[in-house]
Amino acid sequence: MRASTRVIWTVSVLMLAAVSEAIFPLPFLPFLPGFNNGFRDNNAAVKVAKPVAPGAVGKAGGRRRGGAPEAQTNWAGKWELFLENSGVSAMHAILMPVINQVQFYDATIWRISKIKLPPGVPCHVVNAKTNRIDCWAHSVLVDVNTGAIKPLSLSTDTWCSSGGLTINGTLVSTGGYGGGANTVRYLAACKDCGWVEYPQALAAKRWYSTQATLPDGNFFVIGGRDALNYEYIPAEGQNNRKLYDSLLLRQTDDPEENNLYPFVWLNTDGNLFIFANNRSILLSPKTNQVIKEFPQLPGGARNYPGSGSSALLPIHLYVKNPKVIPAEVLICGGSKQDAYYRAGKKVFEPALQDCARMRINSAKPRWKTEMMPMPRVMSDTVILPNGDILLVNGGKRGCSGWGYGKDPAFTPILYKPRAARGKRFRELAASTIPRMYHSIAIALPDGKVLVGGSNTNDGYKYNVEFPTELRVEKFSPPYLDPALANLRPKIVNNATPKQIRYGQNFNVKVDLNQKDVTKENLKVHMLAPSFTTHSISMNMRMLFLGIVGVNPAGAGSFEIQTVAPPNGNIAPPGYYLIFAVYKGVPSIGEWIQIV
């Protein structure tokens, strides 16, 4: 091709790409003459974008690809100490619906914590022959507004367990260690409720397993140490005895394991995306058949003890949805395949620095990788109310395990999934508290992020490199910049439904003292609370609802006409936090239940 013709053709394609980027899922650049973006399909590297400088932001009034204009701020967020002593180190956490209390629990094996069981609650009998008892609490409910702590009694060991919420907001906790490994536990979302435990409910021992909510509200649980299989959680009070072998877990079980706590996301077609170590499949929970195998993600191990983190990116819904609703998975960080072995030899390798995402409903799914500003392992991934992603906690070297992680990652990263490639990462304000192995982070109704835990020790220890951490912090993301306070909507509680049904049209009324309010910049988001432990956020799910219209509803008020999710494949029944979001600034969330 002559040079002049090549230039004209290249410019034409670039102009077409500029106006079509939101329509076509793949960039035009690979087709330019002589262009090589480093992408190789399947087991190969993907084009890598350079990290963004700390504090970098887009131009004022910037627009996300496929999204509304977003208010801009240079504010990097703020940390505050919420609790000096949570009583129990937060190894596991979930926000309980309606009552706005967070459940923290760790392990009973150590027979110690920093809070005793309250008077009148009998101590747990550890050994009837020796009369050994345990009067420490290993589970607490923490009010997210006041910090009030209520200790609860646990009998079975919840160490490295899994969990999720029922349709009615009851926490179902599965597995654990020793006598707790086959247990299913129930904690209802009420202020006076206690744990109900069924020690023989599961067919296999589930230690480091993952629990997922199915379209009908039932539960699936997979994996765990020496459990290369999966099962379905039975109704309360019943015992399950049927197991299903997992070829994926067998094939990804390397000498360091690296396939514990697999990532499981409910796809928009009702099937389960399951990722273990560096491979993934799509499994039908109806037929128990593997529907699809995805390309391998190169670079290292992503699951425990490799311990990257993952999210199902926000699902975009419309007033009339397409037959196939897109779904995209994000996986960030992790460690080299042999990191656990090397850490045992006191060699702490740098963690992985990449973030990869894949459209799992694409006809030809493939991983696309970008580089974070820093390597990370043992981080927590939190979907924020406005749909951005917060990567927080963890370290920069080593892997999960007692004393196996080094170099704390104090600086959280904001990831904007709808921003242009190369402009998605931003470093935020740093914490001063190391959050290493056994840390947690969850989104709160007020838009802040609750951050707690960190215990790299076999027990509660304080005179060590990384002491058992009982302090709990709250982090305010950039959209809580005081300068943006006038952009923050307020949902009118008594004018917004508390229950909705699939496909239902409903209204969300907000107070918002702004003139430029349209259906393009005022949105409705729904967030499912996650069960968070060991860098995995089970059942975390964000929905962007379709907007019919936005109408004035009196001075300083607007009514958003929106549509509920179409079915349980998109949004399993149960409780969600609903947010009104104006130019990227979310309201305080209100609880709404899909029934």
Task: Supply the CATH class of the largest domain.
Answer: Mainly Beta
In total, the number of strands is 45
Q: Quick one: biggest sheet?
A: 7 strands, mixed
Rg value: 24 Å
| Shape category | globular
CATH homolog superfamily of the largest domain: Galactose oxidase/kelch, beta-propeller
Low confidence ranges? 1-62
Class per helix and strand makeup: mainly beta
| CATH architecture descriptor name of the largest domain | 7 Propeller
**Helix proportion:** under 10%
CATH topology of the largest domain: Methylamine Dehydrogenase, Chain H
Strand content: 25-35%
Give the termini separation. Answer: 62 Å
Number of domains: 2
Q: Give the overall pLDDT as a whole number.
A: 90
Protein name: Galactose oxidase-like Early set domain-containing protein
Keywords: Signal
Domain Galactose oxidase-like Early set: 488-594
InterPro entries: Gal_Oxase/kelch_b-propeller, Gal_Oxidase_central_sf, Glyoxal_oxidase_N, GO-like_E_set, Ig-like_fold, Ig_E-set
